[in-house]
Design a protein that fits this description.
Layout (H helix, E strand, L loop, with lengths): L3 H14 E12 L2 E14 L2 H11 L3 E4 L12 E6 H11 L7 H19 L7 H14 L2
Antiparallel strand pairs: 1-2, 2-4, 3-4
Helix pairs in contact: 3-4, 4-5
Length: about 140
């Protein structure tokens, strides 16, 4: 569990170098396409130790090297990302310290809490797609 200082540091990283998004996906399994939405948080930086610290601090998420920027003259770009309920947990923990992306985080928290309720109560699913789409559009307004 990160300390309050680490949560504040992470919030600064997320405000300055991060992304909070609701993405639309189309998932094909067993000859059935299931469309839906998912929450993602990503923090990008050229300083690998900072990205490693984020992963170590939260104990979850994945580290990646951006392959599209491997051209001569560019520093390697690293990113850490996390999805769904783990992203919800991280946002709830750092929310008090967010400044720039506070509104986006608020929408993302509402979105993921709705997703959790939907998985617990199947009767909420029929209009879930429309509600998720509205929240995704609200997040895009801040970009």
């Amino acid at each position: 569990m990160p300390t309050e200082l680490e949560k504040a540091w992470f919030a600064g990283m997320l405000d300055g170098e991060g992304e909070i998004a609701i993405r639309k996906r189309s998932q094909y399994r067993h000859k059935v396409t299931k469309a839906g939405f998912y929450l993602i948080i990503r923090v990008t930086n050229t300083h690998l130790p900072a990205i490693q610290k984020i992963k170590e601090m939260w104990g979850m998420g994945t580290l990646h090297l951006r392959k599209d920027r491997q051209e001569k003259g560019y520093k390697p770009i690293w990113y850490w990302q996390i999805y769904a309920n783990q992203a919800l947990y991280v946002l709830e923990q750092c929310f008090p310290y967010l400044i720039i992306k506070r509104d986006k985080a608020g929408i993302a928290i509402v979105f993921q809490r709705m997703r959790k309720r939907q998985s617990q109560r199947r009767d909420l699913i029929p209009d879930a797609f429309a509600k998720d789409h509205v929240l995704m559009q609200k997040l895009k307004e801040f970009s």
